């Protein structure tokens, strides 16, 4: 009996980390798939439009600079996963805990506000994109069956509701560590629709059916007015910033990595792989899309090829977008779910509704556990994000605003401040000045992007009635 107890204890030890949490099994490749899932999202669809606003010089340069900044600040943030020592220090399993350990004070609440508001915003943005893509499939099939002159406009609301219902079920997954398979599927889908967008753009270029491009993008007095040029340029920067926004969940992704080897070294490799991979696709999608459509590039590149032929290929692309966003939604929202549930568990430790799992058996081999609090709170979250997406289905404007809100504080400011604090960099020293200059420049970019996005939303609201969006 004693031997049995030793064996059982050994098995339990194998299943737990040194802090008593479930043992992490992630690798560089699973972390990279999480990053690709988070980064190559709906943002890639707007890059041809962003290039059209910036032109051939500023467009690729902006993509390259955002990529370099993201890789650099991600490496700073990865070092904050453990307190003091990157190998033996206490684990900071969330972004907020990393800020608490390294900065403390009111910055904890500022970080939480920025992170969770942005995560909530991403859930709205992904619902909008998934609804538009699903509606595009329906519209394409309608034109194919009834002809190009048919009245095939369709409401996006029913598709957003359907997407929300799927997320209600998936959101009941209790553990972020168990989402590796969903991220891999989603990453494959993101590659698929990116390849389709690149292929269709290349085919259009080869056929010679292209439109005018320019060094500076859209031309004042021809394509846009002077004020529109300024606002759209700012908005384009926000779209690019959104395309690289995964820092808000970087610590949570890093917490899936097994150790040894040291998590910070593995996460830096994963970030480099993820950002280089996505930037390659961004350059291809943005540059080829701009070459194909010129200064009239659409906000969503896949809808720019029309709803006619090859309708089946565009359908495949849009289906891949929806499938990808099903997984990406969970990658972004699971950290938010976990934060709220951990807070309630800490405030009400004796409340059974927070911890009790109700087993539900469908048959001998199929069943699951349901937690009542998790069911109610996560369902409410998904319903609210779906309703807000139906209220404001403005693709480019919403994505740009999300990029503006999340880029500077979460991708730049907090990683730099934590790095300065951890390494005791003297105030006004050359290194301190360089880091603060980078932070300030990124703040100005985020501020400009936010202004452009708000102006875009305001313009869109002037011609829109709630819950009437059609494509």
UniProtKB/TrEMBL annotation:
Belongs to the amino acid/polyamine transporter 2 family. Amino acid/auxin permease (AAAP) (TC 2.A.18.2) subfamily. Its main location: membrane. This is (wild Malaysian banana) hypothetical protein. One of its GO terms (cellular component) is plasma membrane. It comes from the Eukaryota. Keywords: Amino-acid transport, Cell membrane, Membrane, Symport, Transmembrane, Transmembrane helix, Transport. It comes from Musa acuminata subsp. malaccensis (Wild banana). Pfam families: Aa_trans. The keyword Cytoplasm does not apply. The chain crosses the membrane at residues 28-49, 56-78, 116-138, 150-173, 179-203, 272-291, 311-332, 375-395, 401-420, 432-450. It is found in: Cell membrane. InterPro entries: AA_transpt_TM. Residues 24-457 form the Amino acid transporter transmembrane domain. One of its GO terms (biological process) is amino acid transmembrane transport. GO terms for molecular function: amino acid transmembrane transporter activity; symporter activity.
């Amino acid at each position: 009996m004693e031997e049995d107890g030793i064996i059982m204890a050994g098995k339990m030890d194998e299943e737990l980390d040194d802090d008593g949490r479930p043992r992490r099994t992630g690798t560089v490749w699973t972390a990279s798939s999480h990053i690709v899932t988070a980064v190559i999202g709906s943002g890639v669809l707007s890059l041809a439009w962003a290039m059209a606003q910036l032109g051939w010089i500023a467009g690729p340069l902006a993509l390259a600079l955002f990529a370099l900044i993201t890789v650099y600040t991600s490496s700073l943030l990865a070092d904050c996963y453990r307190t003091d020592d990157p190998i033996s220090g206490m684990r900071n399993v969330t972004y907020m805990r990393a800020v608490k350990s390294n900065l403390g004070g009111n910055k904890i609440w500022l970080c939480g506000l920025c992170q969770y508001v942005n995560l909530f915003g991403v859930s709205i943005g992904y619902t909008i994109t998934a609804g538009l893509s699903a509606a595009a499939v329906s519209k394409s099939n309608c034109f194919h069956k009834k002809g190009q002159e048919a009245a095939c406009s369709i409401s996006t609301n029913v598709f957003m509701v359907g997407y929300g219902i799927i997320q209600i079920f998936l959101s009941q997954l209790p553990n972020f560590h168990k989402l590796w398979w969903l991220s891999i599927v989603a990453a494959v889908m993101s590659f698929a629709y990116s390849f389709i967008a690149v292929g269709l753009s290349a085919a259009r270029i080869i056929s010679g059916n292209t439109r005018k491009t320019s060094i500076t993008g859209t031309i004042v007095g021809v394509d846009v007015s002077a004020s529109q040029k300024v606002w759209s340029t700012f908005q384009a920067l926000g779209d690019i910033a959104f395309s690289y926004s995964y820092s808000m969940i970087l610590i949570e992704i890093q917490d899936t990595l097994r150790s040894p080897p040291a998590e910070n070294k593995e996460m830096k490799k994963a970030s480099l792989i993820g950002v280089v991979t996505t930037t390659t696709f961004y350059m291809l999608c943005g540059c080829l899309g701009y070459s194909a459509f010129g200064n009239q590039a659409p906000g969503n590149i896949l809808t720019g090829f029309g709803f006619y032929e090859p309708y089946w290929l565009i359908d495949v692309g849009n289906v891949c977008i929806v499938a990808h966003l099903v997984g990406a939604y969970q990658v972004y929202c699971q950290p938010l779910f976990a934060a709220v549930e951990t807070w309630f568990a800490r405030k009400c430790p004796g409340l059974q509704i927070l911890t009790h799992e109700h087993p539900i058996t469908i048959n001998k081999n199929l069943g699951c556990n349901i937690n009542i609090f998790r069911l109610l709170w996560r369902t409410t979250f998904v319903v609210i994000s779906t309703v807000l997406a139906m209220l404001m289905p403005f693709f480019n404007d919403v994505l740009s605003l999300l990029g503006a809100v999340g880029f500077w504080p979460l991708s730049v400011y907090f990683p730099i401040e934590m790095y300065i604090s951890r390494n005791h960099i003297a105030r006004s020293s050359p290194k301190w000045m360089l880091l603060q200059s980078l932070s300030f420049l990124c703040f100005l970019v985020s501020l400009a992007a936010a202004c452009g996005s708000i102006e875009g939303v305001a313009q869109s609201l002037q011609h829109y009635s709630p819950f009437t969006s059609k494509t």
